[in-house]
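Translate sequence into structure tokens.
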Amino acid sequence: MNADPRAALANLTAALERHLEASASRRGENDPTVVAAYQAVADAFDLYDDALLEAYGEVTPLEIYSGDDDDDDEDEDEDVAEVLDDHGDEDGDSTGVYLGLDDSDYDEEPSQSK
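Result follows.
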């Protein structure tokens, strides 16, 4: 692969724009257009990150969330599991793909702190 990082960045930017448009006009909880746009962003990001690494030996500080946490450091995983609930399959769909927040995931009125 000898991808141009500038072209890969343009592709990533276009994918993000399409994701924004799909999100703004989504038709329900698991709108296939939004899901496809989400995957297109992930794919475009991977291509950009690979092109950046190949051309300049650099990477972004980002990674694609896959839902799998198969780290070799099990002690750290256990410590995190005690503190955090991963909210694994709360909606019962077992897809592991982030599709946005549900209404119940955030407060309707922001707290007023002074």
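Note: The CA atoms of residues 3 and 46 lie 12 Å apart.
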